[in-house]
Write a structure and sequence with these properties.
CATH topology of the largest domain: Rossmann fold
Largest sheet: 6 strands, mixed
CATH class of the largest domain: Alpha Beta
Number of helices: 10
Helix content: 25-40%
Strand order of the largest sheet: 8-9-10-5-11-12
Order of helices and strands: EEEEEHEEHEHHHHEHEHEEHH
Number of strands: 12
Number of domains: 2
CATH architecture of the largest domain: 3-Layer(aba) Sandwich
CATH superfamily of the largest domain: P-loop containing nucleotide triphosphate hydrolases
Radius of gyration: 20 Å
Shape: globular
Length: 282
């Protein structure tokens, strides 16, 4: 029997959005206002509005080509919006670069795994810790005492993060030799190493079997609870989305067609039509 996860009660905020009741007294971690981007004459995303609570697990779903990954690229400044505003923890992100956005608190994974295959599992995680290495270039070049202290701290932190997925015993394994599911998990750990306040997961369950997906669901909830961060995920596995996502936003042709709880989304006829198509009249 599938494990049932406890979700927070969703309540209205002064907009068309809902957030978990537990986050109501805190500034939303993310607010998108009338966000959009054009590629030539194509409106890839248009009038995208979303608010995320500080500890919310939310889903961004829709048919293939709906614009979901484009939204992630806008949030992380891979693309700069044609119009609209993105507020991260109340701060406007206009003009920021991707590294600056990461330092502000957004980390992500990708549809296609992007690991340093020839480096060890631990070294891949340490790359994510680069924002937390305060020593100078000279300290690193000459291997001064501060360098060794930081290396020890980084090693311990990397193993601590790997333990979330019980991967600490794989620390010395080349990342490229890991099974597919383990590579997916390593990419999430590396993202967590940047100390985000918002974690974006792009199809984290892709290629996983039902058992691995069930374990992933537990670990996403564990990550939220342990780090007290928000998680926004793109996923086609509706068991995962409906099982752990508190608020769900549905995109179709670059526009939001529905927002609500899992029960509301599953019963929404517009969403059903977008996924299954309209029945032909007899």
């Amino acid at each position: 029997m599938a494990k049932e996860f406890v979700k927070g009660k969703m309540v209205p905020v002064p907009s068309t959005s809902i957030i978990p009741e537990r986050d109501l007294d805190k500034t939303p971690i993310l607010e998108c206002r009338h966000l959009g981007i054009d590629f030539g004459g194509l409106r890839a995303v248009d009038d995208f509005n979303l608010i995320l609570g500080r500890t919310e697990i939310a889903g961004l779903i829709g048919p293939n080509g709906a614009g979901k990954t484009t939204v992630f690229n806008l949030l992380t400044k891979v693309y700069h919006p044609t119009r609209g505003t993105i507020l991260l923890d109340g701060m406007d992100t206009a003009g920021k670069t991707t590294p600056q956005i990461n330092r502000m608190g957004i980390a992500r994974t990708f549809q296609n795994i992007r690991l340093f295959n020839n480096l060890s599992v631990e070294d891949n995680v340490k790359i994510g810790l680069h924002n937390q290495e305060p020593y100078s270039a000279a300290t690193g070049i000459f291997r001064l005492p501060k360098y060794w202290r930081q290396e020890k701290a980084s090693h311990e932190r990397a193993l601590e993060l790997l333990s979330i997925f019980d991967m600490q015993d794989m620390a010395d394994t080349p990342a490229g030799s890991l099974p597919y599911g383990a590579q997916r998990r390593l990419e999430i750990v590396r993202a967590l190493a940047t100390n985000p306040s918002l974690l974006l997961l792009d199809e984290p369950a892709a290629g996983m079997n039902p058992s691995e997906t069930g374990e992933l669901m537990e670990n996403i909830v564990k990550i939220r609870d342990t780090f007290q961060i928000a998680v926004l995920l793109i996923e086609h596995d509706m068991r995962l989305v409906m099982g752990i996502c508190e608020g769900i936003c549905v995109l179709n042709f670059g526009r939001i067609i529905a927002k609500g709880t899992s029960d509301e989304i599953q019963a929404n006829p517009t969403v059903i039509e977008a996924y299954l198509g309209r029945k032909k009249e007899a």
